[in-house]
Amino acid sequence: MTPTVETPLPAAPLLHVRDLRVDFAGPRGTAVPAVRGVDLTLRRGETLGIVGESGSGKSVTALAVLGLLPGTARVHGSVELDGKELIGLPGRELAAVRGRRVAMVFQDPLSAFTPVYRIGDQIVEALRIHQRLDRPAARGRAAELLDLVGIPAPDRALDSFPHEFSGGMRQRAMIAMAIANDPDILLADEPTTALDVTIQAQVLDVLRTAQRETGAALVLVSHDLGVIAGMADRVAVMYAGRVVETAGVDELFAAPRHPYTLGLIGAVPRLDARGGPLVPIPGTPAPMAELPAGCPFAARCPLAEDRCRAAEPGLDGPDDHLAACVRAGELAERRPAPAEVYPVPVVPGAVGGGGGADGSGAAAGAASADREGRSPVLSVTGLTKTFPLLKGTVFKRRVGEVYAVDGVELDIRQGETLGLVGESGSGKSTTLFELLRLAAPESGRIELLGRHTAGLSRADAHRLRAELQIVFQDPMASLDPRMPVGDIIAEPLRAQHAAREEIARRVPELLRQVGLDPAHAVRYPHQFSGGQRQRISIARALAVRPKLLVLDEPVSALDVSIQAGVLNLLQSLKAELGLSYLFVSHDLSVIRHLADRISVMYLGRTVEQGEVTAVFDRPRHPYTRALLSAVPLPDPPAERARARILLPGDPPSPTERRTGCPFRTRCPVYAGLDAGARGRCEAEAPPLTGPAPGVDHQAACHFPE
What residues does 307 pair with on adjacent strands? Predict the structure, then answer.
């Protein structure tokens, strides 16, 4: 008789969300939906990633689970934790669940921590609320938690206030407080959004450690598909307050069954530079109070049919891969690339790390070959800038200096894009301010279009300023909310004393050039979306026909689908107008896609520079290698297979001018050297040199490669 083999039943869900709906009170007593019938399951030890554009309902869903929404929200449906219903639970019982069974890691730890209490006191409070511990025992446990998440000298760190920690340390302390009571579930809401890529890698590693130590399930809300690819087991894609696709992470990235998911994947610039122009999703999401009948994505979907507008499709399909699309089966069978579904924009003369329009890289090679024949636009040599370090409230006295910029080298030729990268505090912004002042630098030399800025008169600087324009990170903060868009774009022309007829002709022309309707010139900035506002900022910068455009994190605040459209626009304008760009970004995938050359800064100095393909494919400085290894790929198998270089701690304080190599305190190469070689790094500052004469790839390292 053959013995019967019993197949184990799948574990019951730890968290079961059914038909979750959240409405907010709108004008005149109307209810505005934010979440419209979300179903989710989460099992022990599992990581569920939730992705989608801003306003899709990701964060509201996470906050509704813990009952952390404001009083204006009305929550319906069911949220069961181990079979216990949380919706409608009395406040005292719900408070016992928060922190003990389910803990939250918020997006902004500086806002989540109480600024007037020490870090240790806040972790101790979280421990003593849920556990019977005296204060010394709780403080000892708090120190253990800070040590677990990688904060140095945890006993001393307990007595620090939140503002005394860096952004990465605050986020690690927030994770320590979240895991203090060994919760069953961790909810992480965009935990790496505002962090440098190296600090992001540290925080993600801490989240993995926390999950491993506590056995907790993790719900990770993120707009970064690379982070989701490397962290999640399953993914739920949200649009217009609903889950429109859910599947295992490998299956979802390999064969998405909803056009929206396909569009999100196609809009992401990749570090491994596969493909040419990005594939933006057309249009913007409809306001939640004005959702059309049928599928809410139909207005933006290139595959939409009449039946899509008749009724909203339900989440359907095999148990392991569900999609809310009437053509999900067709997409599953065809497995098209994003460019096959979405119209690929024509980007004339597109060059950069991603290659030409066909992704071949031929255009980039051609641009590199004739670089010496192009006229210089910007040349910076040995730039330094220090600020006084003051102490005292009423009577301030100088106690030191901040070495913000301490040896920057930049070189931009006509029609070229130079990407400037580095961690926060590396001196990128100070470098920009020194360029935009058009004055004599503290030390070093700045030449713009062949003119040395130290010798400019006030009138010369005013004329030259038209050749150098800037696009800021936050368009809403840089556009006057009281002025119509037409006047905002015309303002630089008036400053340069342009004729009234010229202004009347240029404003509509500029709006058309950046893809906006000239009839909208009478509207105000708040009447446009984030991507449209950034296009207005670009139009304003182009008004006086500059030769060099400085772009300071111009797409970091945009959703990935909107970001793709702006990046394609910048490539098109560069080819059409012969512009040069100085593009500052913390996102190396964007730099790889857009730039011809790259300059890497660390602690105020240029540590590596060269042609973008050479630097990305063969980095010579260990800092550049660490930056590149920390950038996540939106490809789960490739992301899991990559080696990581996790840099310890944060950059040293710029208030001390260190002898030798400033990177050695975090350098993995230095850590493996013998005493004699270490002495060279400690005593001698490495010069910026190439591997051979005439090679356009320099690194400031004694032991490159």
Answer: none
Give the pairing type, strands 15-25 and 31-42.
antiparallel
The count of C-alpha atoms lying within 13 angstroms of the C-alpha of 682, restricted to the half-sphere facing its C-beta, is: 8
Neighbours of 384 (CB within 10 A): 18
**Residue 557 phi, psi dihedral angles, 5° rounding:** -95, 10
Q: What does residue 590 show for φ and ψ, rounded to 5 degrees?
A: -65, -45
Q: Report the C-alpha gap between 348 and 241 in whole angstroms.
A: 37
Q: pLDDT digits over 224-283, tens only?
A: 899 999 999 999 999 999 999 999 999 999 999 999 999 999 998 988 865 567 888 988
**One-character DSSP codes across 409-459:** EEEEETT-EEEEE--TTSSHHHHHHHHHHTS--SEEEEEETTEEGGG--HH
Residue with tokens 């989440």: 315
Q: How confident is the model at residue 286 (pLDDT cuts 50, 70, 90)?
A: confident
Distance CA 536, CA 530 (A): 10
| Sign of the CA dihedral with 222 first, then 228, 233, and 234 last | positive
Contact 541, 470 (CB under 8 A): yes
One-letter amino acid identity for 122? Answer: Q
Res 705 pLDDT > 80 = no
Which amino acid, 163?
H
pLDDT of 5 reads 43
What pLDDT, on a 0 to 100 scale, did the predictor assign at position 9? Answer: 40
**Residues paired with residue 421 on neighbouring β-strands, in sequence order:** 600
Number of alpha carbons in the 13 Å side-chain half-sphere of residue 217:
20
Confidence of residue 612 (pLDDT cuts 50, 70, 90): very high
Amino acid code (one letter) for 241? G
Going by their DSSP bridges, the two strands 47-51 and 234-239 should be labelled as parallel
* Under 8 Å between Cβ of 434 and 405: yes
Note whether 259 and 298 are within 8 A (CB).
Answer: no
Orientation of helix 500-513 relative to helix 530-542, angle to 10°: 140
How is residue 358 written in tokens?
Answer: 């066909």
**Integer Cα distance of 438 and 462 in angstroms:** 9
Could you tell me the fold of the domain covering 362-391+398-433+559-699?
Rossmann fold (3.40.50)
43-69+89-236 sits in which CATH class?
alpha beta
Which residue carries 């030798």 as its tokens? 660
- What pLDDT digit, counting tens, does each position of 88-100 carry? 899 889 999 999 9
Percent of the chain whose pLDDT exceeds 90: 60
Can you name the residues that pair with 391 across neighbouring β-strands? 397
Is pLDDT of 170 > 80?
Answer: yes
Reported pTM: 0.87
Name the residue with tokens 């979907």.
301
| Residue 81 to residues 11, 217, 235, 371, Cα–Cα distance (Å) | 14, 12, 20, 62
Quick check: helix, strand or coil at residue 465?
helix
Every domain of the chain with CATH number 3.40.50.300 lies at: 43-69+89-236, 362-391+398-433+559-699
